[in-house]
Amino acid sequence: MANPLQQTIEALSKEKGVxxxxxxxxxxxxxETAARKRYKNENMRARFNAETGAMELVSVKRIVEQVTxxxxxxxxxxxxxxxxxEAEVDMEVEFPRPTEDLGRIAAQTAKQVxxxxxxxxxxxxxxxxxxxxxxxxxxxxxxxxxxxxLIVELGRIEAVLPRKEQSRAESYSPQDRIRAVIKRVNRSxxxxxxxxxxxxxxxxxxxxxxEVPEIYDGTVMIRGAVREAGDRAKVAVYSRERDIDPxxxxxxxxGTRVQAIIRELRGEKIDIVEYxxxxxxxxxxxxxxxxxxHVSIVDSDGKVMxxxxxxxxxxxxxxxxxxxxRLAAKLTGWRIDIKSEEEKRREVEAQFGELxxxxxxxxxxxxxAGNDTPLPYILEGIGDRIVRRLVEAGLDTAEAVAAATIxxxxxxxxxxxxxxxxxxxxxxxxAVSSEGDSGEGAQSESAE
Length: 448
Fold this sequence. Notes:
- The chain is an alpha/beta fold.
- The chain folds into four domains: 4-123, N Utilization Substance Protein A, Chain:P, domain 4, CATH 3.30.1480; 137-197, CATH 2.40.50.140; 287-370, 2-Layer Sandwich (GMP Synthetase, Chain A, domain 3), CATH 3.30.300.20; 372-447, 5' to 3' exonuclease, C-terminal subdomain (DNA polymerase, domain 1), CATH 1.10.150.20.
- It is built from 16 helices and 15 strands.
- Helix 2 (20-38) packs antiparallel against helix 4, helix 5 packs antiparallel against helix 8 (256-264) and helix 9 (279-286) runs antiparallel to helix 11 (323-332).
């Protein structure tokens, strides 16, 4: 049958969740502390006897050649008298001391030391346990309010849900059940403080893992999640198997899976979009539910992208107070500049107007200098789009076009054989006309 002390140690160990060795060490330290008050200058040592289940207390003396402190030292000669020739210098000799003589004050001191050691060990265990669970979702019960913060009971310990980590769409009362993600664990003088969050995207990810089996088993992966808690969230998902639709898996039959998460987040709207390695496709998906007409990368290094949508889709793409485009930018990591088709058309017209103005200036300068005429003003019957294609190909004067062959012109993207013939005829006609005008001018000048 176990000794009463052993039973007490085991019971305390289970209650506090502390290793029995920690309690035994605390008990030994406590008895040694109490013994030093009773036996003043002696070198006291306590140990737990596992066989008898009792604490033993001894006074330790060291064998020396010449004694300077009779309380802690013993001469070699005396040691030989007591223990024979086996005694040597630096050996330690123990003298049993009764623990009953320690007194009431010493016992009280011992009790305080034990509780302090056990409390420290308990705090360390709590810190180690919850520090490994950062990012996990925990269920608890709301206990009370402290300056806007919620104190939540997680089993045998209390955690705090700060006001800044609470969703503005939610409110709680004492005894309400609550699920939150562990955001951080702080060490403090009062013990580890566990901080919870209801607005962290990690909560959204964990809720999807709990509701969607394909995410839990790794078939569907979450590649990113962003939230504006209480209003809207976006989640990017990716399937590792072709025959599984990642968005459909997350939505569930008739939306049952995502609806369970929406209810948990008190009505927060959730956009589930498909992740893509292609940046333009990913941005297009991220702007859902808006439909995108055209995407172009403005600056790949600075990660800037221009998106064009239908006029009636502009407000949907931007979202309430810019929320949709803001979340899409956070999810994709790109800066998104959204324009309507009308805005883009006006912008292109303005740029083309500047181009025409610049070309007129070039034309005037060319006439004055007697240079070749710039192309946009000499190819009659040829549209602006074809003219730009010719300029882009390096054929920026009538003479340059007239000198080209039909085969060379047909190689330019967007220009076929018949169009090439028409361009060549127009260019050569203009070139001849230009030469004729120059000749007449020369004759009249010499006549004068």
